[in-house]
Structure formats: structure tokens, C-alpha cells
Protein: Shikimate kinase
Organism: Brachybacterium kimchii
Amino acid sequence: VPTTPRGPRLVIIGPMGAGKTTIGREVARRLGVPFADLDELIIEAAGRSIPEIFAAQGESAFRDLEARVLALALEAHTGVLALGGGAVVAEDSRALVAARPAVLLEIDEETARSRVGRGRGRPMLGGEDPLGRWRTLTDARMPLYREAARWSIDATDGGIDRIARRIIETLE
Ligand code: S3P
């Protein structure tokens, strides 16, 4: 009987709009394990929404909180944990995630366009050109995602069910 390691069974990372929360929840449901979303844990810890945290305290306060909540979740959570798009940018956080089974969800720009739209609810995409911001951020972060992830999955198409199934196949 294999011993159960501490920490999440699976961490899901990738750019904004990749479907990390939706697919993570479906993978957890199929595996019969708990699901948690880092952004939701941050909202609970702060008692306010992510746009409110950015507006009231700024990005660096959000990143501090994100890193602290992530470290706790990586210790305590035993199921599937979906992260926000910027959660592995900090080197320490990236190293913690790299020590876990982490999958990168990749999408193309067309898919991002339909998902992140005008950037509503995502302060990192605020301003005139949300998709341009998405592209710049994603290009810069892709090497960091690859460092943190053990494998990656094309999440551009295929539907939630198929992507979830593919992830579970690679886990087994
Ligand atoms: C962010 C991504 C968001 C959220 C916050 C910052 C980022 O999560 O954590 O708005 O820097 O990429 P999603 O990837 O779930 O949109």
C-alpha cells in the first residue's frame, strides 16, 4: 500500500482563462477528493474580493497574501488545488509548487479572448487592451509555469470532460 504524501494530490497552474478552476473542480469530482481554489482561499482570508484587495492595498499586498495562503494550502490541502495565474511568479512559491504534482493548462490567444474578454474581475488585465496584457503576461510567465509544472496539457479545446479525463490518465 503506497503511503499518502502530505499536500495536494494535484496542483493546477496556468494563465488566466485557462480553465484552472473549472477543470480542477471536475478532476476533483472524478477522483472523489476535495477541491480548493487559491483565489477563493485568498478572498476568505482577506474578507474582500480580489479587485477590492488590489484597489485598497495594491498588487504587492495581494502577492504577499497569495504566497502565504499558497504555502498553507500546500501543507494542508489533500485534493486538487487550482492556483491563480500569477501564483508561481514568486520564486519561493514556484519552488514549493514544483515539489508537488503540478499540471500546466495551456491555451491559445483565441481561447483567452473568449474567456478573459474585457478583463472584468481581473485587475491584472485592467486598462485599454486586456487581451494584449494577457499576451504580455502569459509570454513572460510561460517559462515560469514550465519550471513549476511536471507536465502540461493543451486546454484550448476538447471540452471539460475530455481535458479532465486526460489529466487523470496522466496522474495514474
Ligand atoms: C492573477 C490571476 C487571477 C487572480 C488575480 C491575479 C494573475 O487568477 O489570482 O487576479 O496575476 O494572473 P486566475 O488565473 O484564476 O484568473
